[in-house]
Amino acid sequence: MTLRRGDEADLDGLGQLLGGLSDLSRWFRFQTAIGSPPRSALLLRMLRPAGGAWVAFRDDRMIGHAMWAWATLGLPDQADGRVAELAAVIADHEQHRGLGVHMLAVAAADAIASGATHFLFVVSASNDASLRMVRRRWPDAVAERDGSLMTFVAPARLPDQPKESADVVHEQIRYLKGREMPAAAELRPVHDPVPTP
Q1: Could you count the other beta carbons within 10 Å of the beta carbon of residue 103?
Q2: Which pLDDT does position 37 carry in this prediction?
Q3: In whole angstroms, what is the distance from residue 152 CA to residue 162 CA?
Q4: What is the pTM of this model?
Q5: What is the pLDDT of residue 74?
Q6: Which residue has the higher pLDDT, 180 or 31?
Q7: Domains of the chain by start residue, with CATH
Q8: Is the predicted pLDDT of residue 45 greater than 60, yes or no?
Q9: Euclidean distance between CA atoms 63 and 47, whole angstroms
Q10: Distance between CA atoms of 85 and 95, rounded to whole angstroms?
């Protein structure tokens, strides 16, 4: 498996990834219809966000996409432009094996290096797996419900890290300087139980 920064050359692969998702996976990621095939404008925004984008491949087929973009939703830190929204989408047959968390960690490291102080996650209130992942890996996130969506704002740090020191962030970024990096050799099933108080 290979993980690298996404670019316009990945339009077809991203279109195939999104087109191959179940209706539920598409809804959880976008909370709206995206068309079939997805519009080129959507794919371009995902590959060239106001932040960074990454794509994962297995056997020359795209199996994941992650990104971060500066948030402009009236959040407390919006005035200084330091809130980064993180999002990922993983092929149905690759879900629940750790790839999403791995890709979000790469996106988070890049956002931190770009100056993000907080992360924003917007998750469907019925997406139990993603809700558990955010609550477990960013336990200090403040949550608000808005209809069918949960919005989380958390201090910017890598998942499962209590505090990011400069060397941790720079080690993650060092891998991003080349265009490609090998992903974890063997991803195992991931279970993200919500910690009980």
Answers
A1: 25
A2: 80
A3: 17
A4: 0.77
A5: 60
A6: 31
A7: 2-178 (3.40.630.30)
A8: yes
A9: 14
A10: 21
Both tokens of residue 194?
């919500």
Position 160 scores a pLDDT of: 63
**For residue range 113-136, what is the model confidence (pLDDT) as tens digits?**
999 999 999 999 888 889 998 999
Answer whether 67's CB lies under 8 Å from 51's CB: yes
DSSP string, the chain: -EEEE--GGGHHHHHHHHHTS-HHHHHHHHSS--TTTTPHHHHHHHHS-SEEEEEEEETTEEEEEEEEEE--S--TTGGGT-EEEEEEEE-GGGTTSSHHHHHHHHHHHHHHHTT--EEEEEEETT-HHHHHHHHHHSTT-EEEEETTEEEEEEES--TT-SS--HHHHHHHHHHHHSSEEE--SS------PPPP-
Q: What's the whole-number mean pLDDT along residues 138-166?
A: 80
Instruction: Report how far residue 114's alpha carbon sits from residue 3's, in angstroms, rounded to the nearest whole number.
Output: 20
Query: How far is 75 from 106, CA to CA, in rounded Å?
Result: 23
